[in-house]
Automatic annotation (TrEMBL):
Protein name, UniProt field: ABC transporter permease
Species: Promicromonospora kroppenstedtii
Taxonomic superkingdom: Bacteria
UniProt entry tagged with the keyword Transmembrane helix: yes
Signal peptide feature range: none
Regions crossing the membrane: 40-61, 102-122, 143-169, 175-196, 208-226, 256-276, 314-333, 363-386, 407-433, 453-472, 479-497, 525-543
Keywords: Membrane, Transmembrane, Transmembrane helix
């Protein structure tokens, strides 16, 4: 009796067809959209409000003297490195000012959003083993990556549409407004594709995010170095996707062809990600994981050591990235007095900036607000890592050992707050170093240090708020991110929006004021510290009483 032997067909021997590698992309995309619908809403709302509030001063830029003074400031090497090559400076209209001074920072903001979203839905899902369950169904190998990039595309398009409406509503040209916001979205999408490649390289999401942010920092540096070398940039500038967006010259001399470079880069990066993804094992990265020690060092025992190991990479990248940004920002401080002409000719600037030395200190206070907002973002992200640990199931395993809930929670919170202090103080010192590198010494080193120290109690309040939300309302931790947007809104636009006193007092930063202009009252700092202690006490009490894991 003989048995028939099945012979594989030629199609089977050739391997899966291309279409099968994308099977299930539509279903995954719908799932991602449903899962992230609130993230999409808050990102779109936040960026749109940024446009709506941030463009107010540009609409009022109609005084010839003020326009000329501002164009002189923007054409300085320091400002070129921090904004862009500058177009339309000979006739500095409000539209040209918005394009020159807004595009860079919006590209950076949406690029960070795109990076985090892509890594969240690719490498982080694979790291948590959830992708393995998904892949057990009819889902192609590249479907999660393509769905993640499509999700980021949709998010950027939604933000571009709402932002364009917000810009056009302030009497800017409609076509140019849409051109600017969609160009920014396309530039951000390039870095989403970069994150897709990075997700193939590293086994852990933290590594993929770090590599992607390093690429974003390199693009910023290349653009800055290239732009200061010649009028309207140099050949070096064209190595940066950020420069491609700025080279559209929107509101001055609109041209579309530089955006073709963005499209080409996205396609090439998508193909590269597909090739790399086909050549690695599922769950692994192309970069080999370094072998660890056979036995752990005594210093690695305990929850605090675990929290430090988990957070040190993010702390390093955040401190370095923001430090470089604030270092460059410090080089602008010596150029601030050049705006005196604008102050004398425009009542709005006079009320906002004051005059003489007060104007410099006002600018220093604005930079202090930026630095504190960056440190707050790190602090909240580091604090909410505990939620990810619990959702992954690792917290339940750790608590099964002889580790109390209070000790487990205290360790990551302590590391998160100390990391926030490092980011904050490093930012203030980088600002001083940038100013000192230009020979500006009107403000003493101690004033920069005090600027950084003054915000620490307010930062502790935000860290405590994130911890309390995690302990009592785990599904509402997004409110901590809303608070960051709120404190920034109050700090920058409270007078513009004529916010009532009670609304301003909700922001912890409001109680700090501008440390560069006036000493902060000790009672306020002690009050903020007390609020932080209460929030942390609530966090520990709430974490002790609820179930783990989250139900």
């Amino acid at each position: 009796m003989s048995a028939a032997v099945a012979t594989p067909s030629a199609r089977e021997l050739a391997g899966p067809v291309f279409g099968s590698t994308l099977a299930g992309t539509g279903k995954l995309l719908r799932f991602m959209l449903r899962r992230d619908r609130m993230r999409i809403f808050w990102w779109a709302l936040g960026v749109t409000l940024l446009y709506a509030g941030g463009l107010g001063e540009y609409v009022l830029l109609d005084d010839p003297a003020a326009s000329e003074a501002r164009s002189v400031l923007v054409s300085s090497p320091a400002m070129i490195s921090m904004t862009g090559p500058g177009y339309g400076l000979d006739h500095y209209t409000p539209g040209a000012a918005v394009a020159n001074e807004f595009i860079l920072w919006l590209v950076l903001t949406l690029a960070v959003m795109s990076i985090l979203q892509v890594v969240r839905h690719t490498r982080s899902e694979e790291e948590s083993s959830r992708s393995e369950l998904v892949r057990a169904g009819v889902v192609g190998r590249h479907a999660p990556s393509v769905a993640a990039l499509l999700l980021v595309l949709i998010m950027n398009v939604i933000i571009a549409l709402t932002s364009a409406v917000a810009v056009a509503a302030q009497d800017f040209d409609v076509a140019q407004s849409f051109a600017m916001t969609f160009a920014i979205a396309l530039g951000a999408l390039v870095f989403g594709a970069v994150a897709l490649v990075a997700a193939q390289a590293y086994e852990h999401g933290r590594g993929a995010v770090g590599l992607s942010l390093a690429a974003l920092g390199a693009a910023f540096l290349l653009r800055a170095l290239g732009d200061v070398q010649g009028e309207h940039g140099s050949a070096l500038s064209w190595l940066s996707p950020i420069a491609w967006v700025q080279q559209t010259r929107v509101f001055v001399d609109l041209r579309w062809w530089p955006l073709g470079l963005c499209v080409a880069a996205i396609v090439l990066l998508l193909v590269l990600a597909a090739l790399l993804g086909s050549r690695r094992d599922f769950g692994a990265g192309l970069v080999a994981v370094r072998s660890g020690r056979a036995d752990a060092e005594p210093t690695l025992a305990g929850p605090a050591a675990l929290a430090w190991v988990q957070q040190r990479g993010a702390l390093l990248w955040t401190t370095a990235g923001l430090g470089v940004m604030w270092l460059g920002s410090g080089t602008i401080i010596r150029e601030v007095p050049n705006m005196l002409d604008a102050v004398q000719g425009n009542p709005m600037y006079a009320a906002l900036l004051g005059s003489g030395e007060d104007m410099v200190r006002t600018f220093l206070g604005i930079f202090g607000l930026y630095i504190a907002a960056g440190a707050a973002a790190y602090g909240i992200a580091a604090t909410l890592r505990v939620k990810g640990e619990e959702e992954s199931g690792r917290t339940e395993i750790v608590l099964a050992a002889p580790v109390s809930r209070g000790r487990w929670l205290a360790a990551p919170l302590l590391v998160a707050f100390l990391g926030t202090v490092v980011v904050q103080i490093t930012g203030a010192l980088a600002l001083w170093l940038g100013a000192a590198s230009t020979g500006y010494d009107e403000l003493a080193f101690g004033e920069y240090l005090e600027l950084g120290l003054a915000y620490l109690p307010a930062l502790a309040v935000l860290v405590g708020l994130a911890a309390a939300l995690y302990a009592w309302l785990p599904r509402a931790t997004g409110l901590a991110w809303v608070m960051i947007g709120y404190v920034f809104l109050v700090g920058m636009f409270a007078d513009l929006f004529d916010l009532p006193e009670w609304a301003r007092k909700i922001s912890p930063f409001w109680w700090v004021g501008n440390p560069a202009l006036a000493d902060v009252e000790a009672a306020r700092l002690w009050g903020l510290s007390g609020v932080a202690v209460v929030l942390l006490a609530l966090a520990f009490a709430g974490f002790r009483r609820r179930d783990v894991p989250i139900v």
